[in-house]
């Protein structure tokens, strides 16, 4: 099971206020029988039809609904809604009724933002499942397949879905503590007006499930009079590449800069960089533990395990050798052994036989790719000349080295023979494409793409993680995040070839108080 682990977070209160359509306080008058909401609707096929009620005395909403699913390309559920505009937050305590005989574990109660009431509409929601899973679900475009970011947290006591600009962010309180960032945010553009509301889906047409929603707040947002100090928050995730089930799981989240996850050979652990050190964290969730680097410091997001899993190559500094070089240590930690004698060397990939290491070095403003025996020795330049050739990674059969280069103009993906010959261009679009990582079967290549207006390999930009078909050279988008440098600098595929790991980023208040501004 996947568990989202939160770094220690201090929370404080925040005041939010601004004008927007559809906002108001709960009313006990007959003109507002649904409190702060305008109406209720079955979305998609719901049989029998859903119902909702509002108790003005307690402020509680009760929704009962059938519906086959809220997933895939179309939905069936009951929604209590208000039409809204501008930025907002929607907050509630959600409690699913105890399961009846035959209840589906994927029945869900949710807070939702939705473009229309069409069954295949674009939307974002945070849903509590009967199984105990919590997920931020979203459909990017009308008729697309739903994606989600899941947490095995159990059901939080309170959840908040916040829209600020095109960024949708989830905040949670597990046991009544102040709301805090859960590690999930996505980018979606809602045309105004759109819908905000509460929903229930039985995940089984003909069955009826019930949920209650207490302490419901639908509030407009404005910038604070005195903007708070901001800090970078990082979220380490895994995601499946299946087009029909693009499910992501949050492994670790918190303030600070994490980067460059590698997957262990047994698929149970992720290695990542934070604060100049390397760390292990279980894929199933848990606390991160520092790897013994034997005196190496100032490590970067350039590291990776040997094919047999026994050795860890890394780019660090040691006291007797200033300047970053490639070192190797036992995978469980230990004394570093220098591989590259020259400084300013950055690890990228092991050859499939474990005998060669690829690294890059910048000289006179140009970045090029080199190969060196894993035991150390003479290095060989595989690319030469001006410009940038970066992020080399071997194909699993050792026949190719994939890399990115600006030799054709904008940054594109190429591959070459292991000796540097027969360079072949693989991408040809207007995006700036970086960090090509072949899958374990060699059929797919993960790439990170910036917009055409971005120069270099910066962090904290809107990027798209995409899958390049190694045979046809066709590319499909997988997930849009805030990332860039640090997201997937090094090989990051799971051994099963069905998942990969990455890091996304978000600027949030330094004191996490349940809001994004």
TrEMBL record:
Residues 1-17 form the signal peptide. Pfam families: PD40. Keywords: Signal. It comes from the Bacteria. Belongs to the TolB family. PANTHER family: PROTEIN TOLB (PTHR36842:SF1), PROTEIN TOLB HOMOLOG (PTHR36842). This is Uncharacterized protein. The lineage of its organism: Bacteria, Pseudomonadati, Acidobacteriota, Terriglobia, Terriglobales.
């Amino acid at each position: 099971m996947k568990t989202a682990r939160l770094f220690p977070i201090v929370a404080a209160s925040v005041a939010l206020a601004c004008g927007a359509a559809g906002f108001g306080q709960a009313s006990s008058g007959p003109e507002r029988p649904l409190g702060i909401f305008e109406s209720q609707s079955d979305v998609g096929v719901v049989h029998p039809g859903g119902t909702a009620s509002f108790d003005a005395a307690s402020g509680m909403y009760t929704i009962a609904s059938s519906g086959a699913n809220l997933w895939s390309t179309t939905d069936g559920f009951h929604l209590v809604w208000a039409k809204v505009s501008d930025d907002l937050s929607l907050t509630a305590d959600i409690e699913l009724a105890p399961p009846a005989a035959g209840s589906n574990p994927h029945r869900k109660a949710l807070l939702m933002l939705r473009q229309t009431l069409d069954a295949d509409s674009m939307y974002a929601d945070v849903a509590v499942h009967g199984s105990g899973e919590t997920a931020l679900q979203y459909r990017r475009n009308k008729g697309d397949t739903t994606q989600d970011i899941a947490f095995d947290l159990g059901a939080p006591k309170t959840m908040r879905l916040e829209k600020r600009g095109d960024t949708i962010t989830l905040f949670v309180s597990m046991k009544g503590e102040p709301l805090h960032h859960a590690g999930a945010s996505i980018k979606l553009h809602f045309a105004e007006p759109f819908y905000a509301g509460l929903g229930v889906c039985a995940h089984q047409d003909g069955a009826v499930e019930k949920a209650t929603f207490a302490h419901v707040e639908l509030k407009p947002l404005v910038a604070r009079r005195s903007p708070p100090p901001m800090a970078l928050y990082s979220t380490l995730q895994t995601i499946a590449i299946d087009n029909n089930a693009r499910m992501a799981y949050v492994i670790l989240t918190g303030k600070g800069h994490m980067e460059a996850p590698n997957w262990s050979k047994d698929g149970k652990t992720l290695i990542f960089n934070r604060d100049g050190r390397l760390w292990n964290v279980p894929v199933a969730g848990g606390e991160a533990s520092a790897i013994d680097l034997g005196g190496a410091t100032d490590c970067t997001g350039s590291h990776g395990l040997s094919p047999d899993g026994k050795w860890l190559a890394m780019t660090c500094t040691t006291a007797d050798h200033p300047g970053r070089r490639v070192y190797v240590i036992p995978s469980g930690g230990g004394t570093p052994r220098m591989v590259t004698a020259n400084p300013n060397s950055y690890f990228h990939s092991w050859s499939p036989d474990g005998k060669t290491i690829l690294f890059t070095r910048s000289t006179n403003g140009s970045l090029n790719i080199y190969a060196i025996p894993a035991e150390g020795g003479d290095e060989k330049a595989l690319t030469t000349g001006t410009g940038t050739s970066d992020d080399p990674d071997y194909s699993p059969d050792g026949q190719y080295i994939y890399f990115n280069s600006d030799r054709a103009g904008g940054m594109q993906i190429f591959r070459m023979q292991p000796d540097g010959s027969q360079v072949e261009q693989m991408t040809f679009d207007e995006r700036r494409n970086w960090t090509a990582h072949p899958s374990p079967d060699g059929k797919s290549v993960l790439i990170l793409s910036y917009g055409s207006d971005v120069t270099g390999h910066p962090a904290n930009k809107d990027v798209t993680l995409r899958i390049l078909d190694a045979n046809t050279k066709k590319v499909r988008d997988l997930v849009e995040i805030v990332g860039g440098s640090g997201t997937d600098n090094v090989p990051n595929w799971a051994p099963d070839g069905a998942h990969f790991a990455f890091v996304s980023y978000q600027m949030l208040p330094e004191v996490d108080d349940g809001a994004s501004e």
